[in-house]
Amino acid sequence: MLCSHNGRTDMARLTLLFIAILMVTQVTSVHLSFAHFLYELEGMQWALRQHWFTETVMHTGVRHLNSVLVASLLLLFGRDCIRYGWTPRTQNRGLLILSVLTSFGLIAYLKTVTQLDCPWDLVEFGGTRPYYGLFQLKPSFIEAGKCFPAGHASIGFAWIALYFYWRERKPKRAMIALVTSLTVGFGLGFIQQLRGAHFFIDDITSAFIALWVATIFFNIVNRKPSEAKTYA
After folding, report:
1. Which of 85, 117, 210, 220 could form an S-S bond across to 103 if both were Cys, CB 3.0 to 4.6 Å?
2. If we measure between CA atoms, which residue out of 120, 150, 114, 149 comes closest to residue 132?
3. What is the DSSP letter of 60?
4. How far apart are CA 122 and CA 65, in angstroms?
5. What one-character DSSP code corresponds to residue 231?
6. Range 46-68 burial, b when 16+ CB lie within 10 A, else e
7. Phi, psi of 122 (to 5 degrees)
8. 74-102, pLDDT tens digit by residue?
9. Phi/psi-derived region of residue 132, left when phi > 0, alpha when psi is between -120 and 50, beta in every other case
10. Closest of 106, 103, 101, 207 to residue 198, by C-alpha
């Protein structure tokens, strides 16, 4: 469990692994090489950028679906607060909401701070801007990008919080939620890569942020085991 001592050790190891992956991509530019592979595969253009499936269904449609899910979760939380008051049930659901929304918000904020470009913005991929890495200072006269970390992939990754929400009471459901959120996140991220909207490191970064956010929120409150199993 990520809330245990061993869990903290696991998170420390994951953090070191993430930092290593980030450094390797910046030093070797392997993320650029993979983007070049996809770009060449599509005929030296981002042929899927405005495709009805990748743009209308998997981008716009999925965003709307996620908005419905978040709104539904907020309504359930409000209903529980009115019906049960502040109980372990509402508390846990509140942590779920905070984790999901914080993941979305933090990733969106970092996109404005890092100012990195999408592949489709870069000269080597048919765009107009030169490439600048994460640790390179971007001149102020060059328009700021908003493509790191990956926002769309966070629609899947933010729901990693469901793993923590269910892990004590329904461990099997928790594992399904974890696998599903990672699969959806990386799936949506890859579709965005096919559109030229992101590099793969953008998706890995969003996954790590969402995992850390959920870990922090669900480690704030220590519930008694007997309380943790009394609600669905």
Report:
1. 210
2. 114
3. I
4. 31
5. -
6. bebbebeebbeebbeebeeebee
7. -85, 145
8. 999 999 899 988 888 898 999 999 999 99
9. beta
10. 207
Residue 68 in tokens? 């419905």
CB atoms within 10 A of CB 158: 28
Which one is predicted more confidently, 230 or 35?
35
pLDDT mean across residues, the chain: 91
The neighbouring-strand residues paired with 122 are: 129
Residues 6+ apart with CB under 8 A from 138: 115, 132, 144
- Amino acid symbol at 147: C
Q: What sign results for the dihedral spanned by CA atoms 9, 15, 19, 20?
A: positive
Give me 71's structure tokens.
Answer: 């709104």
Structure tokens of 11? 């998170």
The domain locations on the chain are 5-228
pLDDT per position as a tens digit, 104-146 = 999 999 999 999 999 999 999 999 999 999 999 888 889 999 9
Q: Which residue type, as a one-letter code, is found at position 78?
A: G
Query: What is the C-alpha to C-alpha distance for residues 64 and 195, in angstroms, rounded to an integer?
Result: 19
The torsion angle over the Cα atoms of residues 232, 221, 163 and 54, rounded to 10 degrees, is 110
- For residue 88, whether the previous peptide bond is cis, meaning omega lies within 30 degrees of 0, is no
- Report the 10 Å Cβ neighbour count for 219: 17
